[in-house]
Amino acid sequence: MELGGKLSALSEKSLSEMNSFLPPYWSKSNPIDVLGDADIDRFTKSINVCLEDKEVNGILIIYTPQGKAEPGELSRKIAQIGIRASKPIIIVWMGGRKVDEAKKDFHPEWDSHL
User: How many domains does the structure of the chain reveal?
Assistant: First the structure.
C-alpha cells in the first residue's frame, strides 16, 4: 500500500473459526468477504474473531446494503462492539440515503447534506 500499510495475515485459529460459520466459498484470507447474503450474526462473529486475533491491529469494514444485514441494526451492533474493542474499527458505509441514518450510530452529528 502507498503509505506502508498492509493486510494482516489471519492466524490459523481465526481461519478455523471463520470456516465454522462463513459459507465454504468465502475468501479464506484477508480481506474477509462475509458475502452479500450475510446477516448481522455473520458480520459480528467475523468482527469479533478479528478483534481477538493477535495478528490484526485494526479492522476496516466496508458495507453496502444488501442481503439480510439491515444498515441500522448492523451499525448499532458494530458501535456496541467498538465501545469495548481495544483495536480501532474504521467503517465505510456506502449506499447514500439507505445508510444515512445508520451513520449516526458512529457519528451522531452526521448530516447527509454536508
Answer: 1
